[in-house]
Amino acid sequence: MNISSVLVNARPEVLPQVQGKLLALSGVEVHAATDKGQLIVTIEADSDRAAADMFTTISRQPGVLSAALVYHQFEPDPDEEA
Fold first, then answer.
1. Contacts made by residues 55-58, CB under 8 angstroms, sequence distance 24+
2. CB atoms within 10 A of CB 62
3. What 3-state DSSP class applies to 11?
4. Fold of domain 2-81
5. What are the pLDDT digits (tens) for 23-74?
6. Dihedrals φ, ψ of 2, to 5°?
7. If we measure between CA atoms, which residue out of 45, 44, 18 comes closest to residue 33?
8. What does the alpha-carbon distance between residue 56 and residue 64 come to, in Å, rounded to a whole number?
9. pLDDT at residue 82 greater than cutoff 70
10. Residue 4 in contact with residue 68, Cβ under 8 Å?
11. pTM: predicted TM-score of the whole model, two decimal places
12. Which helix (H) or strand (E) holds 65?
């Protein structure tokens, strides 16, 4: 499992719409948002490719000004290790 943390900057006037779109994406969680349009987001994905694709999807959302990958970690799936 790939876990990534992303700092997203969105236009403040459309922040609720951006947050709603991000929450609708599979594997995406919004942990915090400021009135200035900054969001702390995590992505959980099965592969590096899926994580990269989701990062691209987030950065291309209407109202998103930028997205910066802050952290990435790979963890083995505990269900597959048993």
1. 55/4, 55/6, 57/25, 58/6, 58/8, 58/22, 58/25, 58/28
2. 10
3. coil
4. Alpha-Beta Plaits (3.30.70)
5. 999 999 999 999 999 999 999 999 999 999 999 999 999 999 999 999 999 8
6. -100, 130
7. 18
8. 11
9. no
10. no
11. 0.87
12. strand 64-74
Distance, in Å, from the CA atom of 47 to the CA atom of 44, rounded to the nearest integer, reads: 9
CA distance 66 to 77: 30
Closest of 36, 37, 38, 42 to residue 4, by C-alpha? 42
Instruction: Return the SS3 of 59.
Output: helix
Cα 28 off chain centre by? 5
CA dist 9 → 6, 34, 59 (Å): 10, 10, 9
Task: Locate the domains of the chain by residue range.
Answer: 2-81
- Please report, as a single letter, which amino acid is at residue 26: S
